[in-house]
Amino acid sequence: MPTIKEISAITGVSKSTVSRVINNDPKVSEKTRRLVLDAIQETKYTPNIIARSMITGKLPIVLIIVGDILSYHFAKPVVGIERVLSDTGYMPVVYNSMYDEDKEQAFLDMAKQFKFAGVIPMTAIGSEQLARTFHDIDIPVVLINKKIKRSRFDAVIADEYEAGYLVTTELIRCGSHRIAYISGPNINSRINREREQGYRDAIIEQGFPIDENIIFKGNLDIASGYEAAKKIFSDPSITAVCTNNYLMAAGVNQYAAELGKRPLENYDIGCCETVSELNSGDIIYAGPDLQLIGEKAAELLLKRMQGSKEPLQNITFAVENVHNPKAAAFV
Questions:
Q1: DSSP states of 209-230 as a string?
Q2: Which structural domain, as residue segments, surrounds residue 24?
Q3: Cα-atom radius of gyration of the chain, to the nearest Å?
Q4: What average pLDDT does range 174-190 have in this prediction?
Q5: What is the pLDDT of residues 70-84, one digit of tens each?
Q6: CATH code of 171's domain
Q7: Which residue of 106, 183, 209, 299 lies most exposed, with the fewest beta carbons within 10 A?
Q8: Are residues 153 and 295 in the same domain?
Q9: Which residues contact 252 (CB under 8 A, 6 or more apart)?
Q10: pLDDT tens-digit profile of 289-303?
Q11: Would you list the DSSP string of 14-52?
Q12: Is residue 12 part of a domain?
């Protein structure tokens, strides 16, 4: 197995410089960094993570906490994070919490105990206990779609209100005036609250009343979309459904198919997140580029792990993708 000494001999730079490249020291010139990285790739050198952590005091692990990895809302940013971190010597580890705050708390405690290099939490749920944990954490953190009061972390946020508003507006353009909505658990969830508010404001702006009887609470999964659909399709006056996320939209479509109903023909359906790669041509959707959100968060975290003292950044991604399969009919 190649060693740092052999990499040093191949490149002609000192062992300490090779070590600094492996540890992503920003003071190393780009020319030297490229020389060393090329040699590492050529020799298939693999750093000894345990030995390296004994020197640096940290494991080169980035903990990514997601609510449900089946959700496109979480999976796509992970792709962006891994794309940025893949060649930096840090190992992304994804923890699927299924929105269980006790499990999230346990993994954050583990990250602190074993001194992970960084953390990227993506769940929108946040109790007071979790907020206190983040305030006390002593490793770099970048938040994705998560807001913490008096936060001292960089944050990358999607405009969730705009997504809810635009999807509902598109459903109204399709001719629907009575649109059911399936939200998520709003307690401690900024995303769920803002998407639902966008739906409500779009309805009111068009001069239609808000009917609380056709606003349902789901659990952000296929099963809850399926169960809500049973009530929705029992009311023939409802001609469209707006869902908080794609999984619940899939549940609605599943139940509708059992009734012999087809989207775009018998009803319209929309969801408040980008699902462009899921072969969802029958769903109206709106949202930002989720992979870019992940990439930006990883870039910010990488700087913090390398010791950057730049001012905190709070970046909001606007909606870029609005897909309406019926749009051609309006032209």
A1: PP-GGGEEE--SSHHHHHHHHH
A2: 4-47
A3: 23
A4: 86
A5: 888 899 999 999 999
A6: 3.40.50.2300
A7: 209
A8: yes
A9: 182, 225, 226, 228, 229, 232, 241, 243, 269
A10: 999 999 999 999 999
A11: -HHHHHHHHTT-TTS-HHHHHHHHHHHHHHT----HHHH
A12: yes
In this structure, what DSSP letter does residue 285 have?
E
Q: Centre a 10 Å sphere on the Cβ of residue 150 and count the other Cβ atoms it contains.
A: 6
Q: In this prediction, what percent of the chain has a pLDDT beyond 90?
A: 55
Report the distance separating Cα 185 and Cα 79, nearest Å.
Answer: 26
Distances (CA, A) of 115 to 35, 118, 120: 30, 8, 14
Place of tokens 């459904």: 241
Tell me, what's the pLDDT at 54? 43
For residue 62, report the phi and psi dihedrals to the nearest 5 degrees. -110, 115
State how far the Cα of 176 lies from the Cα of 102, in Å rounded to an integer.
41
Tokens 């404001």 belong to which residue? 201
CATH number at residue 26: 1.10.260.40
Same domain? For 262 and 314 the reply is: no
